[in-house]
Known about the structure:
By secondary structure, the chain is mainly alpha-helical. The protein has one domain (about 1-130). The chain contains 3 helices and no strands. Helix 1 packs antiparallel against helix 2 (about 85-110). It is rod-shaped, with a radius of gyration of 33 Å. The chain starts with a helix and ends with a helix.
Amino acid sequence: MTEDSGRSARPAINSFLDSVGQLLVTAVEMVHTRLELVFTEFQEAVEGLVGLLLWWLIALVAAGMGLLFGGLALIFVFWDTHRVLAAVLIMCVLLLVAAIASRVALARVRVQRELFSTTLTEFAKDRGLIKMPP
């Protein structure tokens, strides 16, 4: 009788160990997938930020040069009559443009999607699946 119970206990233990091993493999694969998602999102965020900064820099340089030469042209036009007034008006317009641009930039930064939002959503789903009912 002890031999039969010993023989039947071994397959049960082996089956249990196989199940635990499979559970560990599944958990490791799940963590690996989530880490890949984190790094993919991080890479996309960095690439998007670098591209955005580059285009903003090009736009700022081009706009600055255009405003500089436009302002100088207006000052030269009014050089004999009202050069100081022309310079002050151009300065006021440029400061107004700078204020509007900074407000728009701040609004866009506030609207940006949260970094790693997809990953956090997936982690929340995983936490919900892992939690056992009480």
